Amino acid sequence: MIFRVLGPLALVQGPDCVVLPPSRVATMLAALLVRPNEVVSMAALQEAIWGDEQPLAAKAALQTCAMRLRQLFVRHSIVASSIETVPGGYRFNASGQTVDLVRFRELASAADSEPQADRQLVLLEGALALWSGPLLANVSSESLHRDAVPRLNEERLWVLERLCELKIRLGFAASALVQLWEATRSNLGNERLTELLMEALYRTGRQPEALAEYRRVKDFLADELGWIPGRGCASSN
Question: N or C: which end of the chain has fewer CB within 10 A?
């Protein structure tokens, strides 16, 4: 069984995928999965589940959620010890074989220490392939969407930047274009992604589009933030 958190919260076993419906139990599971192998405090879990509307007996209510989560595990033949009660909170014991976020980080870390560029490419592409849509779209938790989701998306963008830099360096600039188009449109103020897109356009013989991209991000940053792109963007042209 694989716990998927890099997309809608889901349980995956072979070809079968169970997307969990929104519930307090699902929120508790998500709050544990985004911090695998860490102690998540009672207070953090309560905030994730109830926000500002804490129940009068919040500790007992959280214990009930944990019991129901373990019951969910039993129904899906998941080892009950995956979730552990520890002093001050709970911990989800995870590995790269059980949680996609752990596997993503393992692959990204392996790419850092891999001396062969072609192998780095495979590892980074494998890491990004684990993402499957908007994070926690089926989890109703203001605190998770405010704190955890942006942090995880930043991890993904960092890996994407590394992958696209590597593709361009290895002469696969055309392969990076689709990823960079999508990423720059979803992250309009990200100067580094724009630099990479401009370089990929330039290296594939699309200099006018590279210049248009520079003007686009320059106008956006000037209008939204009151500043202009750095020299890195301009030097791509």
Answer: C
